[in-house]
Design brief:
The complex is a heterodimer.
Chain A (H helix, E strand, L loop, with lengths): L3 E4 L2 E4 L5 E7 L5 E8 L3 E10 L2 E4 L7 E2 L9 E3 L8 E8 L8 E2 L3 E5 L1
Parallel strand pairs in A: 2-11
Antiparallel strand pairs in A: 1-3, 3-8, 4-5, 4-9, 5-6, 7-8, 9-10, 9-11
Chain B lengths: L3 E3 L4 E4 L4 E7 L6 E7 L6 E7 L2 E5 L2 E6 L4 E6 L8 E8 L9 E2 L3 E6 L1
Parallel strand pairs in B: 2-11
Antiparallel strand pairs in B: 1-3, 3-8, 4-5, 4-9, 6-7, 7-8, 9-10, 9-11
Classes of the chains: A mainly beta, B mainly beta.
Amino acid sequence: EAQVTQNPRYLITVTGKKLTVTCSQNMNHEYMSWYRQDPGLGLRQIYYSMNVEVTDKGDVPEGYKVSRKEKRNFPLILESPSPNQTSLYFCASSARDRGHEQYFGPGTRLTVT
Amino acid sequence: QKEVEQDPGPLSVPEGAIVSLNCTYSNSAFQYFMWYRQYSRKGPELLMYTYSSGNKEDGRFTAQVDKSSKYISLFIRDSQPSDSATYLCAMSTTRSSASKIIFGSGTRLSIRP
């Protein structure tokens, strides 16, 4: 089954404790990205990757890091989480020539206290 | 002004009603117009997309684009309780993954049995 998986699905942590949210896709997609979804603000892109070892900032990259060492994986790293990073996070992927068809993961609900 | 505007709702209609969901946009370069459906506690999934102007029908769903007015619509005929979800419009200039996708903030729809 074609899918994007994220782990963990739910995470409660404290300010300053480094964390990683994993994302993996099994569709051999070149493009992967991370979004955060907040009430009234919709989906905002954090980082994206056009291919292995190619990453770039989205609209709200501050406080986040990413890496793309393998085509299927695109982890999101919060080196020092803060309460304003409490949000619902989605990973998405698409084929290079079908960017309008984004496949989303199930989401990770992060709470930073 | 946001590039894409969408009424957040919530919108509540009785089962069997025709539903109309709408978005307006400001960037005349948008060529691909998508509708994503997001069930509670799930990631968005692509419902349908339209290239340029015109209508596209898929079962009970019809997507309509009016580029002269910068206005897109999604119609749902014979609405069912299973259609209850948040609907996000999205737009991009090309089908390439290099084109940024702009999402609306979503309209929450509830179909009453």
